[in-house]
Amino acid sequence: MKILVINSGSSSIKYQLIDMTDESVLAVGLVERIGIDGARLEQEVSGHEYVIEQAIPDHEVGMELVIAALTDEENGVISSVDEIDGVGHRVVQGGKFFDKSVLVDDDVKAKIKECAKIAPLHNPAHLMGINVCEELMPETKQVVTFDSAFHQSMPEEAYMYALPYKYYEKYDIRRYGAHGTSHKYVAQLAAEQLGKAVEETKIITCHLGNGASITAVKSGKSYDTSMGLTPLEGLVMGTRCGDIDPAAIPYIMEKEDLSPQEMDDIMNNESGFLGITGISNDTRDIEEAAEEGNQKAQLALKMFSYRAKKYIGSYVAAMNGVDAVVFTAGIGENGIEMREDICQDLDYLGIKIDTEKNNVRGKLTDITAADSKVKVYVIPTNEELVIARDTLALVAE
């Protein structure tokens, strides 16, 4: 069984073709700059890179190129799309409607469209990818996996905001979270490392990348998470501000004569690491500048680690303990100094890491200090594999 995993963005299509007999990745690729000059497809198969550079005016042409690359006689891995048994799509926001992956039908697409009001940058692009795949592969079953689905287990006191209740009733204003597929995957692997059933554990999963969130996973279910109604809430991120006093928003809007859309753009695309430093949204650039003595870069890194530390401490309290802390995603898997900074002074909670073991990037590693009461792991995430597994289960029914 071969499953094609699609992550459709506003101007890109990320994809993987996975052979589910052994869960091996046959091909991984990216179509980028759709509708923009310099559009291209890059596909890697067994270390060999295949590139197509041409105008890609829309997602339909982009998906046609994906199929062409996968079936290319010299550079592809299948002879026909008929070899694809199912397509799994990543969708950021499923709102209150979905707590698990589902087969695509008209009702599912309508709900994805409805949820676009709380994920306007993501859901429309995901829906576009679904529609194009249905057109190009009409006989192939389509499945959607929602980033928010894992967090539907949160209790009311965790997901509700203390706004007038009517706004929840009228507009579904509440915490939904994100990165759920990643949090679920690494929590399950952490439980295996602990030698316990995930239902018997309390785990804090730190998905730290350009977008970042931390989740309290209690008994295998999301108990609380740092992202909220949208991915803007929570940690300091690449270009997102994370937690701020809501009163700062109208104050700045009045002083700068900004529209709601302009203010939203500032908070989502001009803040975070980029906003503090004025250098970049990439932690590698920030770390380089910090080493050269740039005080704003040093501040941005301290803000990131400090807020992560606060969330970890609060989730230990919320769950009445913790068995393991997991670091994953780009910064979590590769940020040696950042992991050390976050875990520093958490020994009162029994969380300590071994600096020698922590000298690792991108592979599953136990970095726990010998005298730590809580296990600390680096676990590479694999959201595509989770999507592929869910897709296989549904198309095989």
Low-confidence stretches: none
End-to-end Cα distance, whole Å, is 13 Å
**Sequence of secondary-structure elements:** EEEEEHEEHHEHHHEEEHHHHHEHHEEH
**Mean of the pLDDT scores?**
93
Provide the spatial order of strands within the biggest beta sheet: 5-4-3-2-1-6-8-7
Measured as a percent range, the helix fraction is 25-40%
Largest sheet, strands/sense/barrel: 8 strands, mixed
Q: How many separate helices? A: 14
- Class of the largest domain, according to the CATH hierarchy? Alpha Beta
Number of DSSP E strands: 14
Query: How many structural domains does the protein architecture include?
Result: 2
Strand content: 15-25%
CATH architecture of the largest domain: 2-Layer Sandwich
User: What is the gyration radius calculated from CA atoms?
Assistant: 21 Å
Oligomer type: single chain
CATH topology of the largest domain: Nucleotidyltransferase, domain 5
Sum up the overall morphology in one term.
globular
- Going by CATH, what is the homologous superfamily of the largest domain? ATPase, nucleotide binding domain
Structural category: alpha/beta
Quick overview of this protein structure:
By secondary structure, the protein is of the alpha/beta class.
